[in-house]
Amino acid sequence: MKILKWIVSYIAAILIGSIFMMTMHHFSGIMFPEAALAKFPENNPEALRAFISSMGLGPQIAALISHWLGTAMGAFIAMRFAPVTDNWLRTQSILKATFPGWAIGIWFTIGGVANAMMIPMPSWMIAFDLIGYVPFAFLVSRMVVRSRLR
After folding, report:
1. Could you tell me how far CA 86 lies from the centroid of its own chain?
2. H helix intervals, 1-150
3. What letter does residue 85 receive in the DSSP assignment?
4. Model confidence, pTM
């Protein structure tokens, strides 16, 4: 039964984190109408590259923040619903105690790599994007552990 709880917690974390990420992308399209997902050119990599490069810094950073906040939400869900006891959290190192959350960070990093392979983004954007997933997941996981142990 415990393995089923682990599986469900990870599936929920991935689904909710992904939905949250897309919702944040939608809101960034409202904040920066020139970057709305509906305006992205389809089936033309060069047009897409030109479109992304022509966007200002604000929409580009909003996209990064959307990715990181979606990852953070996924890590939060994983940490809240993973079948670990408070006693186990107290006795383990911080890396082991936060494992459910940063594992989601690794999952979303893999998704970020796939995203970078499909959507031609500037190099700096890819680098910052991929660097942010695991730290955001770890920080949120650490906050959840601390709140559970209070």
Report:
1. 25
2. 2-31, 45-54, 57-81, 86-91, 94-97, 99-118, 123-149
3. -
4. 0.90
Q: Phi then psi for 93, rounded to 5 degrees? A: -65, 160
Per-residue pLDDT tens over the stretch 87-138: 999 999 999 999 999 999 999 999 999 999 988 888 999 999 999 999 999 9
Q: Whole domain around residue 98: which residue ranges? A: 2-149
Distance CA 118, CA 137 (A): 23
Q: Are 81 and 48 in contact (CB under 8 A)?
A: no
C-beta of residue 60 within 8 angstroms of C-beta of residue 52: yes
Question: What letter would DSSP give residue 120?
Answer: -
pLDDT tens digits along 48-70: 777 787 888 888 899 999 999 99
How many domains is the chain built from?
Answer: 1
